Amino acid sequence: MSFREEMVARAVKFLLHPKVVDAPLSKKISFLEEKELTREEIDEALKRAESPESIGAAASTSKAKAQRETIQRFEHAGVQGVITGGVLHLSAVAAKDLGADAAGQARQVLEQIDAVLQAKGASRSRIISATVFVRNAQTDGGAVAAEWELWLGGENHPAFACVEAGTAVPAQLVTIQVTAAM
User: What are the record's GO terms for cellular component (predicted)?
Assistant: First the structure.
C-alpha cells in the first residue's frame, strides 16, 4: 500500500499537537478528510500517532514548549530574578555593606550570586553572561576585575561587560547582573 508519506507525517504531527490530542476522534478524522487524506492515510497516521515513540516525542516537545513559556519570578536572600526557558536571569546584585571598598563590595556581591545560583540548582560554570557596573571604572575597575577573575577560578569565562554607571546610592560602588543556564 502506498501512502503520501509527507501527508501522513503532517497528519501525525497534527494528531500529536497538544490542542488536538484530546479532541474527539471523529473531529480529527473529519479534519484530515477535509485535507484530502485517503482513509488508508488517516488510519496510518492514527496508528503512528498512537505509537510509544510518537507519544514520547510529543510529550518531550510539549514539556520543552511549556518550559520555554513558563516564567518563574523569585527573590532569594534579597536578590530578585526570573527563570524562563531553562535560563536564570538575576537582577543587578548590590553589596549589603556599602562601607567596604570596591573589591570588598565585589566579593559580597559574588557571594550573594553564588548563594542564589546554588539555591536554584545552577553554578558559576553555567553563567552565560555577566554585566559588571562600577561607579568609577578608573579607580575601581581593576580591583573589581581582579575579584571577578579570582571568583571564576580562571575557567568558564562567560560573555562579559564592565560598565561605568552611577547609582542612586553614592556608596554603592559595584553591582553585577548575571544570566546562567539551569
Answer: peroxisomal importomer complex; peroxisomal membrane
pLDDT classification of 67: cutoffs 50, 70, 90: low
What are φ and ψ of residue 37, in 5° steps? -80, 145
pLDDT, tens only, 35-66: 999 999 999 999 888 876 555 555 555 555 55
DSSP of 135-163 = S-HHHHHHHHHHHHHHHHTT----EEEEE
Q: What is the dihedral of CA 5, 6, 9, 11, to 10 degrees?
A: -110
Long-range (24+ apart) CB contacts under 8 A made by 151-158 are 151/107, 151/110, 151/124, 152/124, 153/124, 155/125, 156/124, 156/125, 156/127, 158/127, 158/128, 158/129, 158/130
CB 126 within 8 A of CB 181: yes
3-state secondary structure of 101: coil
The pairing of beta strand 127-134 with beta strand 93-94: unpaired
The one-letter code for the residue type at 16 is L
**C-alpha to C-alpha distance for 68 and 82, rounded to whole angstroms:** 12
Q: Please, what sign has the CA dihedral across residues 3, 7, 9, 14?
A: negative
Strand-pair partners of 79: 76
CATH of 5-68, one of 1.10.10.10, 3.90.550.10, 3.40.50.11240, 3.30.43.10: 1.10.10.10
